[in-house]
Amino acid sequence: MKRKENSTNAINEQFLFQVCELNSAIAMISGRWKSQIVYSIAEGNNRFHLLKRELVNISEQVLGRQLKELEMHAIIVKREIPGSVPAGIEYLLTNKGRDLVPILQHLCDWGKVYAGGKGIAVPESDMHEESVAV
Questions:
Q1: In the chain, how many domains are there?
Q2: What phi, psi does 11 have (nearest 5°)?
Q3: Which stretches make up the HTH hxlR-type domain (predicted)?
Q4: Which of 110, 134, 114 is nearest to 123 (CA)?
Q5: How far is CA 26 from CA 17, 43, 51, 124, in A?
Q6: Cα separation of 131 and 119, whole Å?
Q7: What is the pLDDT along the chain (134 residues), one digit of tens a residue?
Q8: Which residues, listed in sequence order, are joined to residue 76 by a DSSP beta bridge?
Q9: Domain that holds residue 72
Q10: Structure pTM?
Q11: 15 in a domain, yes or no?
């Protein structure tokens, strides 16, 4: 969904992208399925039907859209498989995509410790000032 360029949301988003590259990076990989798609391609599931089989709950429409967005951000490239009949397409990680895999792994590890793999909830003990490390 495209925002109006002069909307408050668009202006705030642009400001955040200018003040911190982290916001831009998160925007590139945000999306419910993108990290799983990147992992799956890294593991060799580099064709649409293989990705669909690996990510059983994703719809074909969403998978196609997420692949296009990852390609737009140069995290993956789409390549025709030479000599395949009918013409086959495979998805490959770019250097940017390969560099992203260990970062996603670290975020996954962080999530296992602090988010428990579920919806993010801040434990009450973390809300107290004395538990904050300086």
A1: 1
A2: -65, -45
A3: 20-119
A4: 114
A5: 10, 22, 22, 27
A6: 21
A7: 555 777 887 777 677 667 778 888 888 898 889 999 999 999 999 999 999 999 999 999 999 999 999 999 999 999 998 888 788 999 999 999 999 999 999 998 988 888 876 655 555 555 444 444 54
A8: 93
A9: 32-110
A10: 0.75
A11: no
